[in-house]
Predict the structure.
Amino acid sequence: MKTRYFFDMDGTMAVWNNVSNEELYKENYFLNLEPNFNMVELVNQMLREGKEVYSCSHFLTDSQYALEEKNKWLDKYVPSLDKEHRVFIPYGQSKAEYFNEHGLTPIILTDFLIDDYTPNLLQWEEMGGTGIKFLNGINHTHGTWKGIKINNLYHIYNQMYSNIKSKMMETENCIIPNIKQNGVTYMCIMYTDNYTVYVNGGEEVLVKNNKEDIFYQGDENYNIYYNLITDVLANEVKPLFDTVTEEYALLHNIYDANQWRKDGTFSAKPGQEITKDVYNQIFNCMIPLSLPFNESTVQVSAGFMMGEPYDYKNGQHTYLAFGQNEYSYYYLGEMDRNGKLYNLEEENELESEEDYEME
């Protein structure tokens, strides 16, 4: 399965003119339609990125010019869109129904129709796809479309992908609920008839075989499924994957690589859960020290201290300490070689003082 994007022409890629029906049948009418440059640039950018893009436009079957001129218009403004990715549908026929009737594969959730006409979008979503309404300045006067909307007011590429991510997360969470596996919560990032792909806060992928209701992770069957969807994961799901894991980390107060980059320095709080990639990056940055196991580290089953001293307190060097328990990873705080935690105790004392002052 690969995400597909279907762009309407009249009123979306091309600026629509409110003219009489007679004008629509005149020679050069469709050929001379002014392009919506922001939308055309969006289509060309997506083609450059290797995304599967189609034009999807109605045409007047009783016009001797319409079909030929629409093709010439695309040749001029979207020259890299080949003939196989240009879909022309007889005027009056549903775009969604046309796909099913002509064997253009079933429409699924990751088939996006970008169109300026609400009935087209509603029919598309009824058939299983996702609609995106382009607000072109003359439509959306009744506000009946409640789905994804984009406009010309600011960067249209960022608008579309930001809204798609939000919509997909809402939809997937509605259709495919979060699950727990080995005590770890996973969020759905992709669903097909054959498999469901989940991810946790540590960016670990879990694959479910929907036909047999079996979960795969780290075994031979998992590798087979992972190889099948690796292109989708890399090219289509990766932006969504990043957003989901970031939202998961934010929701559960997990310190992740995105927060690390934003902070510019490691600033997790003592006792805070961190993601697996943060844990591994710190582990691999220098030779680690063994983690002393005592009452301070009873909540973890493995861990390490960074090999370089962080501070010097009470006649002891302190080191940043990290631990893990099953699939969860933690920043424990500053610890000396005897296993005494310092800044966690200090922070608790500070919080107690603040509570006392507030009372």
